[in-house]
Every structure is written in C-alpha cells, then in structure tokens.
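User: Hey, my collaborator sent me this sequence without any context and asked if I could get a structure. I don't really work with proteins. Can you help?
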Amino acid sequence: MDQRAVAQAAELLVAVRRTGKLIDALPAACKPQTLDDAVAIQDATLAALGETVAGWKVAVVDGRVVRAPIMASRVFESGAQVAAAIVPLLGIEAEIAFRFDRDLPPGKHSYEDVAAAVSALAAIEIVDSRFRDHQAVSAQERNADFVTNGGFVRGAPAAGWRTLDLTNIAVTLTIGGEEIVKRNGGHAAGDPLKPAVALANDLPGGIAAGQFVTTGTYTGLTFAKPGQGVVAEFAGFGGVAVSFG
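Assistant: No problem. I've predicted the 3D structure and written it out in structure-token form, which is a compact way to encode the shape of the chain:
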C-alpha cells in the first residue's frame, strides 16, 4: 500500500472523528489489504490527530499480534461521565488491563519479565467505530480504525493481583442497573497477560512507563444506551464504572 493511499484512508478516518459523520467503508483505492497496511493507516491517523499514545489494545489472531493505540484523550478514570455522542456505538467490554511501571525496551521478554514490570487493573473498553456498520467492513478496515477502540475507562491497580487466578476470575457486568454477565473466566486467551507479553515482543518502539495494555474482554461485546451507567467488577480488583450522558 503506497503512502498516498495510506494518507487518503487516514484523512477519511480523521474526518469521521472530527465531524461524527460515519462512512460505509474505505474506498477500494485505499482499503487496507494486510495487517501492515492497517498499522500504517493507524500511524498516519494518530499523527494527523496530533494525539499521544496512552496505551494499547492487543489480541493475537492466527498467530499474529493485532494492536492499536489508545489515545490519551480517550482515557477516562473510573466514575467518569462520557458523552454518548462521541462513542455512539456504546459497545462495552469488561477487561483486565496492565499498566507498565517501568520502560520495557524492544526485544524478547519472558512472561515473568512482563509480569514483573506491570500493575493490573480492572477496566472497561468502550467499543466504537468510524463505520456505520463495523461488522460489514473487512477485518483490516476495523484494524485500521484502531481495532474499533472508542475509549478506555481505568480502575485502580489491584494489590496482590499476581496471587489471583486470572484465568478463572469471577466477573460481573452491570448495565443500567441490570446484571448482564456473571461468570468465572471467559477471556479468549485464558490468561490476559499472554497477549501483553506478545505485544511487548512485537512492538518496535517498546512500551513506555505509564502506558497500559488491554488484552480483550471477559464478557463479550455488549451495548449500553445513553443515560445508562456501567459497572464491571472482578474479584480481588473491585469495580470500575462509567456512565453515558
């Protein structure tokens, strides 16, 4: 994918973020065909917006690391009220995220290395899309669109998280006062730290102290409505909450 096509795709996605006018898809001339294309569009979009990377979302798909930056302007503390108009899809995913307490330079890092470098916290990812129907576009278009990240709500770091069984941890998700999900475990990778390790070994620039990594939902993708509050609770972590005005 040449730089002109990358720039065209980024320009379209930036326009949606600035105007709120969703698009059906990226034109054929600038539609990403590979994961590398999608990452190039992410980078160009981030640069055009002048945003700072506060963290990353990551998954391992068919053996490859799929990642996206989370912009500092879209990070909220637990208890925040977020305008529904800026994240109209209002997708909700309850997650455990990891904050890096020291720089982790590029290179090969063991599971133990990464575990020693991070704190863990309960989080809510707000899923949103610049496309009218995010399921109707290609996987690489979704990847280019920051893997459909709309925002991130962070709770407080949990003391003693290393003693918890993150594979089978109890999680409850409540939306609008109704318990939507109550289960033990449910993370696609089993252990949510594993995708963070994969990212640490894949990210060309390494991970800076203070950045966080969120690695996927325990509760699937559910949806809130304007005016509702959302609370995600993990045993040993406490709760994290957000409401939509």
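In plain terms: The helical segments are 3-19, 35-49, 111-117, 139-144, 193-200. You can pass these tokens on to your collaborator as they are.
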